[in-house]
Amino acid sequence: MALERTLSIVKPDAVEKGVAAQILARIEASGLKIIALKMIQLTPEEAQGFYAVHKERPFYGELVAFMTSGPVVVSALEGDNAIARYRELMGATNPADAADGTIRKEFATDIEKNAVHGSDGPDTSKIEIAYFFNATEIQAPVEAL
Ligand code: ATP
Ligand code: MG
After folding, report:
1. What is the pLDDT of residues 53-85, one digit of tens each?
2. Of the listed 5, 117, 125, 128, which one is catalytic?
3. Which of 15, 56, 87, 145 registers the highest number of CB atoms within 10 A of its CB?
4. Read out DSSP for 90-125?
């Protein structure tokens, strides 16, 4: 098993509902370690850049509007197999399909307002962590990877 890092975002819907800390507690209870953390409000340019991979999708404009609608809590997580483990903890993109016990099952509203983001692979996790955190904001030695 590989030691990995992944980027988590508690999205504006979950922050607005007041469940950000509960989601962070779930992350910690799962054994994933929070190695960087902050609350920010994304600008349209930041949200567009973050979701650039989806720019041809019909929901892109709405997704950017949603992601900039309020503050988000961004964190970097570390652990063995962290990328897949966090996606499993999040549950399916559409909360209607999310398994019992997952974050999206419990906290998401719909397929767009789905409470959390998690990186989908090792290449995107590196890009996404660097998008939000510089080296001095990450509380673990890079040599560990
Ligand atoms: P994320 O990338 O946020 O972790 P994901 O990998 O499960 O979620 P993606 O397919 O990458 O899902 O979609 C990115 C985000 O775009 C979703 O989390 C959701 O907020 C939004 N989204 C996805 N599909 C739709 C849709 N059909 N309608 C509206 N919004 C959508
Ligand atoms: Mg995705």
Report:
1. 999 999 999 999 999 999 999 999 999 999 999
2. 117
3. 15
4. H--SSGGGPPTTSHHHHH--SSSS-SEEE--SHHHH
pTM for this structure?
0.96
* Pocket of ligand 1 from Cβ distances under 6 Å: 54, 59, 63, 93, 111-112, 114, 117-118, 120
Tokens of 133: 């955190």
Name residues of the chain where pLDDT drops below 50: none
Burial 90-100 (b: 16+ CB within 10 A, else e): bbbeebeebee
Tell me which of 59, 93, 112, 129 to substitute to probe ligand 1's pocket, judged by most ligand atoms within 8 Å of the beta carbon: 93
Tokens read off for 35: 């190695």
